[in-house]
Amino acid sequence: MLRKVKLLTIVFVIGLFVLGSICLTGTVASAQDKIRVGLMFGLTGAASPIGPLQLDGAKLAIKEINAAGGIKLAGKKVPIQSYVKDDESKPDVAIRRFRELVDENKANVIVGQTFAPISAALNKEVKKTHIAYFPVNVVAVTMFEKSEMAETTFAIHGSAYSIGYAGASYIVDKLGYKNIVFFGPAYAFGRDQWAGAKDALEQRKIKAEYVESPVGTSDYTSYLLKIKEKKPDIVMLAHWGVDAINVLKQTYEVGLKKESKIWFNWMTNAFGSGVPAEALDGVYSLMSWYYDMKGFQDAAIVKASDAFTKKFEKEYKYPPDPYSAMAYEGVMEAVRGIELAQSLDGKAISKALMANPTFDSMKGKGTWRADHQPIFKYGAYVTIGKGAKERKNAKWDLVKIVGAYTGEDYLPNLKTLGYK
Question: Based on the domain organization, do 169 and 271 belong to the same domain?
């Protein structure tokens, strides 16, 4: 009898402990007075032409959400508190800042990054912490491999592989060029583009010549002069950040633009406004989005893009960069994940997003795939640079939209990334 009483007492105590744990968990969610979001970009260093523009997009999203009362969690609206860090365009600095956000600022979600190697380094940290992480830059294609992608990482801007694949496909299929030189930098962003371009060209039985500049190169003149001697139909340029501005300027200065068509693989407002109008005039490029979509075939895209542009210009007095737009969308998806999960737990947010993968964006409907990158209605837009005479605004009226790249082949095949 005594043993039975002891057993019942133990069961009762365990039951109280479990119930208390459940109640405590509920109390934590219901008592949340703010949701802490870490924002980290390359605000200085090689990524500095883009990082501050991303930060502005992320801050606008947070301002909007807070103006509406905050994030819906546990039956009430909870405001966002943001913590801004500069990763200085360096992976080691980024890891330290990441740990500061997690350990000191107690961030619930992290949104950010400008350079692909930094996103890859932080994805490894995310595997240890399971915090919800939304890189909003273009990341390395290897990060999407099943063995690499953290369960709680969602990379809304895809990979550079897609940029190269889409660019090469359009050049051959739409422009009809076959004598192609690909000029890229010796870092992941450039090499991933080459991998995509090479696959697209091999499928079309076309060989392009590959030229690579070492990391740290600022004077590309010797490379561009050698490319000029080859007399290609078109030259694909794959550089990023300060390198992108330098290579665009120097392509014009050496006269390569007079001899061959120029295709700049991944244009941004920051790059286009950083070079003379003559250097951009007639240059083809891909953009993930552009602030002035007037004349594009899809009226819904034009309307959504125009609405975002007006909000952004009112706040910052300059038009949004494509990377501002994707930082905004990254924050919005982080918020959607929290509201769907009704939790700040990274794994719960991940499960909620994958159970409800489709979302609206200024690029049309987006749907998260198994590898945690989205396929958008419009993967990228094809543009042509405007010369000085065409521009209504000398600094910001940079390009005109002439097409779009759509379809599943914009992203790497899931099987090649290790998914069934």
Answer: yes
